[in-house]
Amino acid sequence: MADQLDPDCVFCKIVTGAIPATVVRETPATLAFRDINPQAPTHVLVIPKTHYPNAATLAAAEPELAAGLLTEAAAVAADEKIADHGYRMIFNTGAGAGQTVFHAHVHVLGGGDFHEGLV
């Protein structure tokens, strides 16, 4: 499925520019943008520019790209000044785990203390 986009996928439409997003980082293989429904003061999504339905299928097909998402997530945390305090990286895989957009992505959340009410 590499090098393909799903014409019905919201995140693929963000990759092509058909849907606007607030982009915070971009590489040739990944795109990072602010979540439109943030669950923390900092909530950024990092996605591959190729369509995979979830993190597991991405990791099986392109482990280097899956690792690249983690590298970019760490770079987002540094850019957003949340790396030193701490942050979460979350992959939801499957509807039962809360995945609502079936395009692999990692949530980068931070900017507060999670034990004090952040998700």
In short:
By secondary structure, the chain is of the alpha+beta class. The protein has helices spanning 10-16, 55-61, 63-79; strands at residues 23-26, 30-34, 42-48, 87-90, 106-110.
Which outline best applies? globular
Mean pLDDT: 93
The tally of structural domains comes to 1
Assembly annotation: single chain
Named at the architecture level, the CATH assignment is: 2-Layer Sandwich
CATH superfamily: HIT-like
CATH class: Alpha Beta
Query: Structural class of the secondary structure composition?
Result: alpha+beta
Determine the fraction of residues in helical runs and give it as a percent range: 25-40%
Strand content: 15-25%
How would you characterize the largest beta sheet?
5 strands, antiparallel
Order of helices and strands: HEEEHHEE
Rg value:
14 Å
The strands making up the biggest β-sheet line up spatially as: 1-2-3-5-4
Instruction: Please count the helical segments.
Output: 3
Instruction: Point out poorly predicted stretches.
Output: none
Strands, count: 5
Q: Indicate the CATH topology.
A: HIT family, subunit A
End-to-end C-alpha gap: 33 Å
